[in-house]
Every structure is written in structure tokens, then in C-alpha cells.
Amino acid sequence: MESIQTERFTDRLYRNVEPIWSKNFHHSFVQGIGRGTLERELFSYYLKQDYVYLIEYSKLFAIGAQKATSIEVMKQFSVLLHETLHFEMDVHRSYAKSFGISEEELEQSEPTPINLAYTNYMLNVAHNGTLAELVSCLLPCAWDYWEIGKKLYSNYHNELETNPYKNWIKAYSSDEFGALAKWLIQLMDELTFEKPERELTILENHFQTTSRFEFLFWEMLLNQEEWPLQVQNMV
Ligand SMILES: Cc1ncc(CO)c(N)n1
Ligand SMILES: Cc1ncsc1CCO
């Protein structure tokens, strides 16, 4: 009897990285956001690093629009680009403002080695790989943050009103953010439909690598892992 393939490719991706995502959710930085106990200093460090991360990350959506083969997909990538630059980065800008950090300071943050390695990895694949490869790189960012947002919301919603990070939690657990993540999941399944195992393995590796970078990013933030030698620009 022939077996019927019922599992979606994204189910396989999810199963594959579940232990990594579980570590991400339980990371003390993430739990500190959930409980509202994370030091302000660390959160403002996060805002600066994540802001320059998002500038690079959003370019993946622009490259996605360029690589798309239908108007529908182009439209959706342009929505993702718009939503990241406006909705998502607005959350960062408004937190920064309340912390006394200017927009200029946010933009001019120097990415740490991990931050740079993460965005460079994705941008390299985006420029040189297929659309499916690009999506497999950007999906963990969207999907794992949505998972984190939803879980923090359900674990800590009773204390949310007094949590200084409630707007962050609300944004990443929102239906709006979730709908965009779901669209990316669906696109991943469409792009991989009936594709050979040799191609799927490559995507699984990108998905795993960027999921591991998500963990390294939290670690980097917690330990403020900067460049070893500080240099000044000559002006
Ligand atoms: C590092 C990182 N990963 C994912 C997201 C979600 O967009 C984010 N803001 N930052
Ligand atoms: C708005 C946005 N920013 C990063 S991913 C994403 C949409 C998918 O959740």
C-alpha cells in the first residue's frame, strides 16, 4: 500500500527545532521580559541591537518581493516589509523614546559579532539562494517570536498590566503579527510541495541555523557580548 504524505514540511521543520525553541522560550532574558523583571539597562541594550537587526532583516522581505514569481507573493512581501518598518519598529521606537534613547542612537548602534553574523548569514542566502531558501532563513525569526509572544502572554497575562514590557508582549502575541507569520508558514509549504529530499535538507539546515542564531542572540544580549577591542572612528 502506498503511504500518503500528510505531514506538512513546516511540521517537520517545527519538530526539528523544537528543543532549540524551547530553550529560547526558557531563556532568562525572555523570561525576564515575561515577568517584567528584566533590568531596564538590558532591555535598552536589546532595543538598540534589535533595531539594527530589523533594518537588515526587513531587507529579506524586499529581496523576497524581487524573487517572487507572482503578484500575490510580491504584494505580501511588500506588506511584510511595511509592517516591519512601521508596526514592529514603532514598538522599538516608542520604547526607546520612553527610555530617553533617540531614533538616531537606535539607528547608529553598532551590531555585535553575533548580530552581524546572523543578518549576514540570512542576507547571503537571500542574495544567492532560491526563494524557498530565503523563506527558510527568515521564518524562525517570525515564527519563534510569535511562539514566544503567545506563550509569554498566556503564562503572564494576569500580571501584564504592571509589566513594563507589556507592549512588547502584546505586539508579538498579536493576531496581526500571527497572521503574517502564518502566511510565511503557508508560503514555505507551497514552495516545498513535492520537492526532492535533497532540496528539503538544505532548507531544514537554514531553518536550524537561524533558530540557533535566535538562541545566540538572547545569549549575546544577556552577556553583552561585544567586540573584544573597542576602536574609535577618526573624525
Ligand atoms: C533577533 C530577532 N529575531 C526575530 C525578531 C522578530 O521579528 C526580532 N525582532 N528580533
Ligand atoms: C512584522 C514582522 N516582523 C518580523 S516577522 C514579521 C511578520 C511575521 O510574523
Set out the fold topology.
Elements: H1 9-26, H2 28-35, H3 40-67, H4 71-98, H5 103-107, H6 113-128, H7 131-156, H8 166-173, H9 175-192, H10 197-223
The structure holds 4-amino-5-hydroxymethyl-2-methylpyrimidine and 2-(4-methyl-thiazol-5-yl)-ethanol (TZE).
Domain Thiaminase-2/PQQC: 15-223
Function: Catalyzes an amino-pyrimidine hydrolysis reaction at the C5' of the pyrimidine moiety of thiamine compounds, a reaction that is part of a thiamine salvage pathway.
GO molecular function, one term: thiaminase activity
Structure characterization notes:
By secondary structure, the chain is mainly alpha-helical. It has one domain: Heme Oxygenase, Chain A, CATH 1.20.910.10. The protein contains 10 helices and no strands. It has helices at 9-26, 28-35, 40-67, 71-98, 103-107, 113-128, 131-156, 166-173, 175-192, 197-223. Helix 1 (9-26) runs parallel beside helix 10. The longest helix is centred in the first third of the chain and has 28 residues, at 40-67. The chain is globular, with a radius of gyration of 18 Å. The termini are far apart. The structure holds 4-amino-5-hydroxymethyl-2-methylpyrimidine and 2-(4-methyl-thiazol-5-yl)-ethanol (TZE).
